[in-house]
Structure formats: C-alpha cells, structure tokens
Amino acid sequence: MDVIRTYVSPSRQGGPAGPRGKAAVSDGSHASGPGNLVTEFLQWKIILFVAICASPTADYDTSTVLLFELSDRVHGPAASLRWLLERVAVKFTRWDAIYFTSASARGHIYEQEWAFSWAFSKLSSFVARVLLLPLPLDPTVKHAIAGILISNTAHLLSVIVLYYLVKELLPSPSQRGSRLASTAALLHVVSPGGVFLSAPYGESAFALLNFLGMLTYSWATKMRYSTIADAGVIDAFWTIISGVFFGLAGLIRGNALLSGSIFVLDALSYLPQLPKALTNATDITRLAGIAIAGLLTGIGFALPQYVAYQEYCTGDEQRPWCSSMPPSIYTFVQREYWDVGFLRYWTLNNLPLFFLALPMLMLLSLSDREANAAIRVFRTTLTRFAVPQLMLAVMALTSFHVQIINRISSGYPLWYLLVAVTVHAASGPTTRHGSGWSVLGKFGRTQAEWLARGIIVYALVQAGLYANFLPPA
C-alpha cells in the first residue's frame, strides 16, 4: 500500500514525501497527545451517557427491572443519587449485560451462563463487594455499576495503549506519527462497539489486554533486529509478557485464542532453519519464549473450561459435553443455547444483520491485505497482527451471530491504523498496485472520512436502541 509506505518509512532518517510550503504547515498541525485523548474520551462518554439515559423509559423487555430491586424516587441528595445510579444501571444492563451482572452477583449457576466471561464476572463481583460496599444500593445494582466502571476504565486505558501501539508500529517523524496514532485512538473512542464498551460487557477489558499483548510483542520484535548482546533474552522476555496479556484476554473473551496464531507463525518461521537454530543460544532462548507465550495464551482460554469441568463433570451426573474431546463448556453452550455454529446464521431472516456487519468485515479483511505491504522491519509484526483479525472476520461471517463483529472488532488495532493512515493521505485513493476494494470500489481518504462519520452515527443510534432493549445487540 503506497500510503503506508509513505508514512511508514523503513528508516528514521528524513520524513515521508509530502506537501511543501504552506501545505506543509497545514499538514503539520498539532497532534493530540494522551492528555487530549482523555478529554475527547470524556466528551464522547458524556454524549453517549446522555443519549442512553435520556431515552424513553418504556422498555421492549422488562428483564432488567425484574433483576433489580429499584427504589421509588424521593427527595433529598442521597435519594436522588441513588435514583440516578439505578437509572444508569437499568439503561446499561441490557441483553448480555444481564447475564454478566447476574453472574457477578451470584456466580455462574446455570449452564448457559458460561457463554459469558467467568473472569469478568469475578472481577466485577470483587469491585461491587469491596469498592462499592458503602453505596446505599440494591446489591445487584452495585454489580451492574461495577461492570460499567470496569468497562469505561478499561476503554480509556485501551485508548491510551492503542495510541502508543500505533506510534510503535509507525517509526515515522514524531509529529506525523503522533497525529496518526491520535486518529487511530480517536477511532477507538467512537468505535462501532459503541455502548458495549461502556456497558457491563467484556469488550473493553478484552481490547485493553489484547492491545497490551500486541504492544509488548512489538517491543519483542524490535529486539529481533537489534545487535545488542542481550537482544535474545529481551526478545523472549517481552514475548512471554505478551503471552501473559493474551492469556488474560482469553479469560475475558474466547476469541483471544486467535492471538495465539502470532506465536504459531513465529514458530513456523523457524522451521526452515530449525537444525541451525537449535545450536544457537540466542535462537533457543527466543524459541523458548515463543513456546511459553503460546502456552500462556492457551491457558487463558482453558482455565474457565477447567473450572466448569470441575463443577459439571466430576460428579455422578455428567453433562453431554463432558465426554467431548476437548471437553469445552463454552463450545457446547454456544451451540446448544445460542445456536452458534458453521453456517447456522445463514438464514433469510438474518440477511439484514449481514448487511449491517458487512462494512466491518470488509475493513478487517482489507487491513490484512494492506498490512502485508508495510516496511521491511515491521512487516513481520503487522502481518502477525493481521492474521488474528482476518481469522476473526472469517469466523464471524461463517459461524458467529454476525452482527457482533461490530463490537468485538474493537479489540483489533490494524483497521484503526488503516483508516487513520487513509484519512491523513494527501489526496487520491488508497490502493495497492492500483486497486482497492474490488467489490466496493477504491477506498480512499473520502471513503475513510465518511466511514468515521458513519461509525459515530451508528454508535449514537445503537445507544438509543440498546437503552430500550432493541436490536441489534
């Protein structure tokens, strides 16, 4: 991709080609740093909160009201604060958030609840029982508020981490790199995940941990091109740390297992030179780091399965999935209770949801192709990050409830990078060898800007629908 080649120079010497004179002054406008990102994040959250809380009170579904013990509105500061917090909890606890909140309050009781993160529920339960103990609220409301606090905090932190991740991936001059990183981070602020990044869902926590895994992996990759004496040890260290973060992400969402493909590709890259690598101490250290990181990623996915196995499969009465190989409660409940499976969602009734998900599916697959045209030193890193993203797009298209791609894509960085680079292109379409999207036409700056506007509108409309328990979810 020519635009990425322009902005991502393989050398730190000199700047990318660009306009000169007055145009250059305009192009070098002040870039937002982390401080400005926090301000913009808070402004967006205020808009989103107002849109949700100001929505009509009549609900399409009354599940949330039945879940909580709500108080009547009475006068007085304490009572007004309680009423306000209860209203926020009600508006944000919709759809799957009911399962997350229920599991936080009383644990995973019913089998189908294991489709929702065991670790996230444990974390929100801790926050509700320890940090929110003094609040004069119904206990279940506290658990909902805890989930909301966790999601918004994780979302803010993931915005900052994405900013530094993009700067790490783009070793271009400071001002230009900062501007691209700021744009990518702002796209994550207004992500099509929208309200799901604020509600008691696992998406924000997953994004934070997945971005941290990729950031630390990029630090490891830099050591593979370093000549310092301890480069192999430092590489292995940061590779293992990235495995820790991917493993933690796996505790939140099962699709974090896809990030393990990064280490699979690393291991496969050693196959042609394996006999020689096994005689080199540095290569052995790096291979050990890759193996440990991959193992940690797998453990993060497997641990909740093990907890469920101990609960359901060690007594006299065992569930059908206990004899499966591997015995995964997550796979079973997704298939049995939520009808998730290969082509199961391909029905005429669901056709509108495929159209809703199509832009994000195309963007995820496009950024995979474009990442392969990156600079030499960082081509490996960008390609590694693109593979989980492409796998996610394929799985969403064939096996998931396809509309959820609009929220789970929020935890994958390359599509933010693609749009940011395209928005900052001087002019003309963003193409590779003269072609863009063969189906949708060429994807250039104008299309990228309209995509960003569309994301904002979608997030606001989605917030109003979500607050009244209306699809899509």
UniProtKB/TrEMBL annotation:
Task: Give its localization.
Answer: Endoplasmic reticulum membrane
The pathway where this protein functions is: Glycolipid biosynthesis; glycosylphosphatidylinositol-anchor biosynthesis
Task: Provide the Gene Ontology terms for cellular component.
Answer: endoplasmic reticulum membrane; mannosyltransferase complex
User: EC class of this enzyme?
Assistant: transferase
Recorded hits in Pfam families, A to Z, give: Mannosyl_trans2
For this protein, the record's InterPro entries field holds:
PIG-V/Gpi18
Listed GO biological process terms:
GPI anchor biosynthetic process
Q: What GO molecular function terms would the record report?
A: alpha-1,6-mannosyltransferase activity; GPI mannosyltransferase activity
Regions annotated as coiled coil: none
Q: What is this protein's function per UniProt?
A: Mannosyltransferase involved in glycosylphosphatidylinositol-anchor biosynthesis.
Can you tell me which family this protein belongs to? Belongs to the PIGV family.
Q: What is this protein called?
A: GPI mannosyltransferase 2
Species annotation: Polychaeton citri CBS 116435
